[in-house]
Amino acid sequence: MPGSEIEQRLARLESFRDIANLQGRYNHYLQTGQIGEKLSELFALENPGVRAEMGDSGLWEGGAGVVALFQHMGRKYSMPGALMVHMLLTPVLEVGADNLSARGMWNSLGTNTCKGPDGRLEAMWQAGKYDIRFCRESGVWKYLDFRWYVIFRTPYSKGWVNQPIIDGLHEPGLPPIGDFYRPYDPASQENVFMPRPPEPAGRD
Asked: Is 179 helix (H, G, I), strand (E, B) or coil?
């Protein structure tokens, strides 16, 4: 990375800000119904290594796969009465020394609306963890490897102890469910929600 040490540090601080804004915009686009039209601004869709995974969706690879995943998510959760409000919490963001790659992790807590077994709308709580690797394309930060791991997705009236998980994104014919799909289990002696956060620069 060219420039003096101070210039390099400033450039990485600017990257920190830009990546934080990227993640914030993603969350707002979910709420404003813009996510479908914004995918090319958010994801490195032309990069052959781009991929995405959302809870039990399975891992979708390539630009076409990422677009197909979000189209599937839109069909699943677009309904009269839909509500999708997710907060970003506990950010850990490490920018690579080359200022071309980065990894970030956030916890997420929010509300969703789903259809219950009888077809009626049901309020639910949802918690999970974002684990994302970023790349720079022509000076712009984008998602390269985007993961959201579910912790619980529970009806508001029941709570995560009584019913920690309800129906998610997976359907027959979709990519296999990933290894990190290990939601909260009230019967488990120890609930540990991997993966671990990125280490400070130089220790990862």
From this structure: coil
Q: Which pair of structure tokens corresponds to residue 190?
A: 């120890």
DSSP 192: -
Whether 134 is covered by a domain: the verdict is yes
The tally of domains found in the chain comes to 1
3-state secondary structure of 23: helix
CA 196/CA 78 separation, integer angstroms:
32
Q: Which of 88, 84, 94, 90 is nearest to 19 (CA)?
A: 94
Domain that holds residue 22: 5-162
Give the pTM. Answer: 0.94
CB atoms inside a 10 Å sphere around CB 31: 13
Q: What is the pLDDT of residues 122-151, one digit of tens each?
A: 999 999 999 999 999 999 999 999 999 999
List residues bridging with 103 in a β-sheet: 94, 133
Short-list 96, 124, 102, CA closest to 111: 124
Cα three-residue angle 75-158-188, rounded to 5 degrees: 95
